[in-house]
Amino acid sequence: MFKNMCVAHRGFSGKAPENTLAAVRMALALPYVRWMELDVQLSKDGVPVVIHDYSLDRTTNGHGKVKNMDWEQIKRLDAGSWKGRAFRGERVPSLEEVLELAAGRLHFNIELKTVGNLYPGIEKTVIELISSKNMRDDVVLTSFEAGALQRVKEIDPLFRTGLIFDSRSGDPARRVKELDCSFLSISFARLNPDLAKRLAAQGVKVMAWTVDKAREMRRLAGMHSDIMICTNRPDVWGDTFLGV
Length: 244
What we know:
The protein is an alpha/beta fold. The chain has 9 helices and 9 strands. The chain has helices at residues 21-28, 71-74, 95-102, 122-132, 146-155, 172-178, 193-201, 214-223, 234-241; strands spanning 6-9, 33-42, 48-50, 107-112, 139-143, 161-165, 183-187, 205-209, 228-231. Helix 1 (21-28) packs parallel to helix 3. It is globular, with a radius of gyration of 17 Å.
């Protein structure tokens, strides 16, 4: 029996507009989706918002940088039409809205989207919000940015952190240890049986992204039963492992 958990990448983003409440609801409708990955940035006035790109242009009808726009402006944008007419009027949600929708039903891998000091205070703001919802045990905070992960540990040494790794060189198992992380988010193409085994022995949880083909899902499951499979198509995961 495969135990490889299904993680909905930006919600059910294969069918709904990524990082929207529609994508979250669609993922929640599948009982085997226990985890979700999403991206968080700060609006100009410091509200954590769920969006992947630093620019608003690809997934909304707005233009310019997320960090230059207040929440009141961001929440008026259309973040659904680009995906299809059925999603017209879907908005960029705040992190608070997503957490409230899925509290008690999902675990979250929340990527802190930042480079250098692009969003001063993002770590503290996000930690305080998660703590206020009593969801600390349901969340791991991940980032490419080592500084962000270090700041999380400075603020709250017990908060779970994860490194996102996509380099062709370097040793992710060593890097995770150096940064005191218990989670590794890694491109599925970079994962091999040796590395998966080493990380499991270290007690590090591994999430492979972004896996949309049944063949690749099976290959990862064959490597190690603990590898979490992050996918835009949780329905394909269901067909592959559960035959549903």
